[in-house]
Recover the amino acids of this structure.
């Protein structure tokens, strides 16, 4: 009980740091992910995440300094390279986009696993360091890592808010945007760079495998509640932040699983919370929610005939 | 005669396939010009080439006496309805407001006067009552009219429209025609891809018949001949009513 109070009042400094940084990251990811989803680029984040694993390994080999920032720069470089390769393949061949994405995801991830095995056999290549990137280890975040995440989140949020009108137009009607002279290629590229940035910033806490959830689940849940781009952005940010705060809180408060060495993993708890919020949104949303649709259908069948056929 | 739009030897290629070959055509100002031709004839591509949305393999385009880059603010565009996702979370009014973005620049948001103008454009296409409606809840004809209202919001002198009559009923078609007629009265030029050859003959004064190459261009009375249609559509034009000197209609 005292533990719970300590947590809720944010007295515990390490939990406070984790909660703040994951919440800010989740907000940034939700905003960027909303636009990526509307632009039908939701899975690009997954490709970037998987390509970042070999990037981290290469940075480990190349750089003498093995700080988090250096490893993440390696992740970002390979993530962007992966996106460039995918775009090039799209342009030069008739390969299907989903196939290209799947090949990129698995190919880069395979390379990453091979490279990380090589690192484990090196002197000083301690296993835990790289494993942390696979599934995340938010609970062990330190304040310097949090600053990195906060900086990335601030850049992403500011860019999206400043250009929200243009990004909205780009996502809805790219041809029209180009017709009025907007630099659609550069806006597309900027959006992809933002996806890469928040993905890489999410690696230490949520991990390669799950980070795409922060980009996809809150926007998908928000879509159920929203009738405009602004409300969707606000709702996605709120759902993302709530997932991060509740997930982090649960992993800190719940008694650790019997016989396990550590506590509950923070990243997966955040993702699970987001998934629960998504299911609730699907069920409860006022216009498009499953329950509302079923209720309206029921009422139409039971109710007076004048409602029959008057669907709009 | 002043030209609103002129193509000078325009060729366009997608990958290694030529989809438009050496198009030379002039569309006079304050005219209503239809672009007609079979599927895959390059009609949409010609519109996109004029707007600079596809790279030209050869040739150039003159827009209102200048380049597209110079005249962008004077050109309105209605893309094909299928080119966007109508499940997008946005209201009809917000779509129309996009017509003001070209004037607003990258960072400024539309204001109260822009909203009033957008309402006025919706009024002109008869959709003022549905301004706050989600676009996913509009019928196909209503969606088409929202796109038209957005083009009106651009306050252009030249309007390029890609199948503005696709999938609309007779009432909507007449409503759209009335708006286009009013635009022309004000001296605007309208260039529209159109599939209904009878309607082209009835409502347009100029026509470009296209099948990768330009088959015929000019005033409807001169260019819209049975021979030209047969060349354009490869013999299937015999079924098309309304062609000038159509032997079938002579009997």
């Amino acid at each position: 009980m005292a533990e719970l109070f300590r947590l809720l009042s944010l007295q515990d400094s390490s939990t406070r740091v984790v909660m703040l940084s994951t919440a800010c990251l989740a907000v940034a990811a939700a905003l960027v992910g909303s636009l990526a989803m509307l632009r039908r680029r939701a899975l690009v984040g997954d490709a970037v995440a998987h390509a970042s694993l070999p990037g981290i390994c290469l940075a480990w080999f190349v750089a003498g300094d093995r700080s988090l920032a250096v490893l993440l720069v390696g992740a970002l470089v390979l993530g962007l390279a992966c996106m460039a390769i995918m775009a090039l393949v799209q342009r030069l061949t008739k390969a299907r986009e989903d196939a290209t994405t799947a090949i990129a995801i698995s190919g880069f991830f395979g390379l990453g696993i091979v490279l990380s095995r090589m690192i484990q056999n090196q002197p000083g290549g301690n296993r835990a360091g790289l494993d942390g990137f696979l599934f995340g280890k938010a609970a062990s975040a330190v304040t310097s890592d949090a600053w990195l995440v906060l900086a990335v989140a601030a850049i992403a949020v500011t860019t999206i808010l400043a250009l929200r009108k243009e990004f909205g137009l780009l996502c809805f009607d790219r041809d029209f945007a180009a017709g009025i002279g907007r630099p659609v290629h550069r806006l597309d590229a900027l959006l992809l760079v933002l996806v890469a940035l928040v993905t890489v910033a999410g690696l230490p806490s949520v991990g390669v495998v799950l980070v795409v959830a922060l980009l996809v689940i809150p926007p998908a849940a928000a879509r159920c509640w929203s009738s405009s781009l602004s409300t969707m952005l606000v709702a996605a940010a709120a759902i993302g932040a709530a997932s991060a705060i509740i997930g982090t809180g649960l992993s800190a408060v719940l008694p650790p699983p019997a016989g396990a060495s550590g506590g509950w993993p923070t990243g997966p708890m955040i993702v699970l919370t987001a998934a629960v919020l998504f299911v609730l949104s699907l069920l409860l949303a006022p216009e498009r929610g499953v329950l509302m649709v079923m209720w309206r259908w029921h009422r139409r069948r039971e109710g007076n005939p004048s409602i029959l056929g008057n669907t709009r | 005669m002043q030209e609103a739009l002129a193509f000078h030897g325009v060729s366009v290629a997608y990958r290694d396939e030529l989809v438009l070959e050496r198009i030379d055509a002039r569309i006079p100002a304050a005219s209503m010009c239809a672009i007609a031709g079979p599927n895959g004839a390059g009609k949409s591509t010609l519109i996109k080439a004029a707007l600079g949305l596809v790279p030209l393999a050869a040739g150039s385009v003159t827009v209102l006496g200048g380049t597209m880059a110079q005249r962008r603010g004077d050109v309105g565009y209605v893309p094909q309805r299928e080119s966007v996702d109508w499940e997008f979370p946005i209201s009809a009014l917000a779509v129309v407001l996009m017509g003001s973005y070209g004037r607003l620049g990258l960072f400024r948001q539309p204001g109260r006067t822009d909203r009033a103008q957008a309402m006025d454009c919706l009024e002109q296409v008869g959709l003022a009552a549905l301004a706050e409606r989600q676009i996913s809840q509009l019928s196909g004809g209503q969606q088409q009219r929202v796109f038209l209202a957005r083009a009106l919001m651009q306050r252009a002198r030249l309007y390029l429209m890609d199948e503005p009559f696709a999938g609309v009923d007779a009432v909507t078609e007449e409503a759209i025609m009335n708006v286009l007629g009013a635009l022309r009265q004000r001296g605007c030029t309208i260039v529209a891809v159109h599939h209904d050859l009878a309607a082209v003959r009835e409502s347009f004064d100029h026509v470009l018949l296209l099948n990768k190459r330009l088959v015929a261009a000019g005033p409807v009375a001169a260019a819209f001949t049975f021979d030209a249609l047969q060349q354009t559509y490869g013999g299937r034009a015999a079924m098309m009513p309304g062609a000038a000197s159509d032997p079938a209609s002579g009997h």
Q: What stands out?
A: The first helix of chain B runs from residue 43 to 51. The first strand of chain B starts at residue 3 and ends at 14. Strands of chain B lie at 3-14, 17-28, 32-36, 58-63, 75-78, 158-161, 189-193, 206-211, 213-219. The two ends of chain B are 38 Å apart (CA to CA).
